[in-house]
Structures are given as structure tokens and as C-alpha cells.
């Protein structure tokens, strides 16, 4: 049997990126299609630490259109057109470093190209979860700023009536909520409460399939820590999102480097990578730190509402047991 060398652990770039791209392609569909466009993932290269997009503020009601006095020739006061901006922070991430002896892989007899593919998939899944959790942190921070975007249902488990109250927070814009994001605890509580209030021939099929009725809106179920408010007992957050509520834009080229390491008792291969993305919340601007950490993204104090109305923001929050 030929002796192994460091080439036995070399990362096969084509296989690595094949695995990475396969998972991210599936993830893009989940973000964009499954959420009805409420959580978007795109690729858009961007320089600097922030991405800024300006927009015209809405002119105040009663000023843009008002009563005209047909008996007067008095001067009419001008109303200015003002502008604001959406500010998206750039989040910089690293992959690894991950190191393993070449001998370890030789001993298990795995094909190095197979290892490359599997590692690519695993890293891609980690990137996907990081995108999602960052997006949820930002949205939760923004909807937590105003009392009018929050509904307290902590008197019990999540129920159908609570979803209706969530829509009600948006008033005449309730139809703009296109998707729910909730913890699995809330999802199955919803099934149970609907089972207890089963309407013959209406919800039977949903209960049989174990799928709750969610007012014709898809549900993204994720056990993200962002959706848990620790306490005794814990509370859980259900987010009702509008189209374009949040966007994760991969804003720099990903880079993966593999390096053979010598000078040790065994040959080792190290893998390390870098990537970055900009995080946008509809109607809001991030106002503080360059390259914020998770706590800074999750802090309501770091986000300022730029849109005139909360109805032009990302959506609503329902808090339940």
C-alpha cells in the first residue's frame, strides 16, 4: 500500500464549492419563495461598512391634500419635500479555521473529494443559519421599538385569534403581512388549540395532516434562540412579516483558503474562510457600530425608524407562552 502524503487531505475546490453551492441554492429558495419574499437573500457586492439607500419621506396628512378656502387670497404656506435613508450594516464573518491531520482521513479510508463536498455542505448550512438568525435579530429589534407593532398573548399558548390580532396591528394594511415566522413550540401549540376548537369539515383535513390553519400565510418554523424570551416560564415570539421585511445581501466575494501545515508530528491541513453580508430591515436604519456583533444587531437602541409609519416597517410581533 502506498504511503499517504499531505495530498490525501487536500481540499478539492470544485467539490467543496459544489457542496457549498448546492445548500445555498436550496437556502435561497427557502428564504425567498417559502417566505413569500418577506426574508430575502441576494448577492450584491457593496463597498464600505454600510449600505445606504435614500428615499422621499411621506408628506404629512393634511398638508399634501387640504381644504381650499374659496373666499381667501391669503398666502399659502409651502411644505418641504424631505428625505431619509435606509442604512444596512455590513456583518463580517470568518469560517474556521478548521484543522485535521491527514493521517486521520487516511485511517478512515475516505475519499478526499468526498470530504471536500461534505465539508462544503456543512459550512454552507452554517452560513445559512447565520444569515437567518441575524435577519431575525434585526427584525425583532425593530418591531420591538413601538407598542403598536406588538401583541401580548402571554395569557396562553399561541391560538388562531392571536394571529388575527397580529393582523389587526396593521389595521387596513393587514393584508400586507405575507408570512409567519415562529418557534416549533408555537407551531404545535397552534395545532393543539385548533384541534380543541375543531370545526367539522372545515379544519378536519388540516388537523389530520398536522398542519395548523394560518390564515392563508406560510409558516417558517425555526427554533432560533432569537424567538425565545427566557423566563419562568419562557415566552415565544411569532413574527408576522411583510414582503421585503428583511434582506441579507452577500456583499463581498467569499474566500476559502486551504493550507498544508508542516513542522508538526503529523501533516495537517487547515481550512479557513471569510465572507460578509449587509443586513437590511424595511423602513429602518442602523445607527451605530461598524461590523456590529450579535448583541448590537439585536438591540432596539441601535435601530431608528426611517419610515413615517410603522405600517411601512417589517411587520409585527406576537408574544405567547
Compile the SSE list and pairings.
Elements: H1 13-34, E1 39-43, E2 50-56, E3 83-101, H2 102-108, H3 112-143, E4 150-153, H4 160-168, E5 177-182, H5 184-196, H6 204-209, E6 219-221, E7 228-229, E8 235-242, E9 246-250, E10 255-261, E11 268-281, E12 284-286, H7 294-297, E13 303-305, E14 315-320
How would you describe this protein?
The chain is an alpha+beta fold and 321 residues long. It has one domain. The protein has 7 helices and 14 strands. The strands form 3 sheets. Strands 1, 2, 3, 9, 10 and 11 form a 6-stranded mixed beta sheet that branches. A hairpin with a 5-residue loop joins strand 7 (228-229) and strand 8 (235-242). Helix 1 (13-34) runs parallel beside helix 3. The longest helix has 32 residues, at 112-143.
Throw out a few tags for this protein.
single chain; six-stranded mixed sheet; 7 helices; about 30% helix; disordered N terminus
